[in-house]
Amino acid sequence: MGPLFSITRRGILQAGAAGLGLAMLHPFAARAQAGQAHLRIMETTDLHVHIWPYDYYADKPVDTVGLARTAALIKAIRAEAGNSILLDNGDFLQGNPMGDYIAYERGMANGQMHPVITAMNAVGVDGGTLGNHEFNYGLEFLKHTLAGAAFPLVCANVVTREGATPDQDETLIPPYLVLDRELTDGAGDTHPIRIGIIGFVPPQITQWDRKHLEGQATARDIVQAAQAWVPKLRAEGVDLVVALCHSGIGAATHEPGMENAAIPLAGVDGIDVILTGHAHLVFPGPDFDGTEGVDNAAGTIGGKPGVMAGFWGSHMGLIDLLLERQGDRWTVLNHTSEARPIYERDADRNVIPLVESVAAVQESVGAEHEATLEYVRRPVGKTSAPLYSYFALVADDPSVQIVSNAQKWYIAQMMQGTAYAELPILSAAAPFKAGGRGGPDYYTDVPAGDIAIKNVADLYLYPNTIRAVKITGAQVKDWLERSAGAFNQITPGQADQMLLNPDFPSYNYDVIDGVTYRIDLSQPSRFDKDGAVAAPDANRIVDLQFNGQPIDPAAEFIVATNNYRAEGGGSFPGNDGSTIVFEGPDTNRDVIVRYIIEQGTIDPEADANWSFQPLDGATALFDSGPAGVVYVDQIKGPQIEAIGHADGSFAGDDGFARYRLML
């Protein structure tokens, strides 16, 4: 079942603090009698190459991620449980700079080991499936990676040649497998058990990785594939079928081609246990309070024992089964489910680690960790202009421009071959590091020239995922009207009025590229700080044009954005989840990294597609970082001057410098 790691007294104490020391006292183990056995099924999912507890973008250790930490939970279960099995639920191959270093620089030649496989071998994974991100680097890369796995992998719905029926398909890897194991019952006797493992991945991989899969592989609907293959698996005399569902917990009713199909999948006859992932959430847990088709208290999905173990090694999923032997077969008498974390947060939201790393896992990829550090610290591309955000709220900005350019580049690829391929693509992005509560040093500032991977953290702080929405020209205007709430109303003819609304967060100041427009600050904001309509007749957005012509309110556009905005974050018109036409599996940060690597030299110089409407005799004041003064003369569009404060100081008591905007 995989290697056991040695346990120190300190490790046992820490395990006890995390609730692990009670594993031996689980009621199933205590109650198991002759002919009954306690089986513990452990899950890892969505590791995304997070092995060390390290944030490569920020270039610092963290306590919230890493298979080396999850391994401590796993070794405690193995040491205390007579019967256990560890399964991985996919998305292990891509998702952090270590994965990009292997894919883009070192390569995966035949015979080479991928570090995530090395680490999974060290932990002792018993079986696994593929996630959608396993296809990001192409099928040859994937083939060479899987060749190093000391454990079998399965996937029933990725097809290289379709048969007359799904169960006659030729699949990329085996659709299922049977693990022959022995269980020790409550009387100490051993009995054989046959555990069937079957895997599934979202069929959307054919869209997300079209360039790698077109002409080589297709994907079946998850439930359709399960209905075809599970009876064949059952026919092999298995006692238990575990579905490795790299798919989230979505709607309870099946629809063809569902991305998040865990609940309908659980309803397929013959499946006993369902391990889920993909959504980067935790089940059982508050993420799914009130969700139809699941029971948080019982830990069931569609009535079957289920679990989802977070992401990046943040949790270990654990399903406990009490089995009873009837004749020569095992049946499930009872079950519990939980997702055990590697850390917790105190009342002040500080991170408290619950386990320490297993040294053997870290050391297994020590050389690759050091190579990744070198990779993130050295240039991987160049920027022809400095990337700074000191004036992102008052002028078109290069740090926002590069995010917008990368998003548009990515979505243009994703729209190819779809029903939306002919629609124009716009891109919405906002400044994240723009002072405010972050303080006078909280700005992006990367000089022109070499750019390293870790600089991307400066450009995009959050782990958002890419989205595309389809909206009208009228909704584009209203989106910008909501964004323009960042500014106070300015009176023409009056000098030195304060410009920025302190209640408006910078991450809600979206600039939309692909159109041109001006903002009339003499108008009140149409929306209040919460996004409700406050002045329905107000029009701050003027001269809104597409391709040099006034925008058609009825025209349709694709807008590249992020999951937060597309699903309603910030209450922006046209964004309530219903307008989403593409849900990407990639983070916006990863999109930027790929863009930089593929472009070689990026040109983030702001294109000045937006500006303020001139107001006679008016000037406005705003605060920004003192270090921004060196860029004042480089800004396209408005005239800005550094003026300092009334007491003669350039930076005030709060550390911010004062600037004047000529309107």
TrEMBL record:
GO cellular component: outer membrane-bounded periplasmic space
GO molecular function, one term: metal ion binding
GO biological process: nucleotide catabolic process
Domain 5'-Nucleotidase C-terminal stretches: 443-573
SUPFAM superfamilies per UniProt: 5'-nucleotidase (syn. UDP-sugar hydrolase), C-terminal domain, Metallo-dependent phosphatases
InterPro entries registered for this protein in UniProt: 5'-Nucleotdase_C, 5'-Nucleotdase_C_sf, 5_nucleotidase/apyrase, Calcineurin-like_PHP, CpdB_N, Metallo-depent_PP-like, TAT_signal
Protein name (database record): Bifunctional 2',3'-cyclic-nucleotide 2'-phosphodiesterase/3'-nucleotidase
Organism this protein belongs to: Paracoccus amoyensis
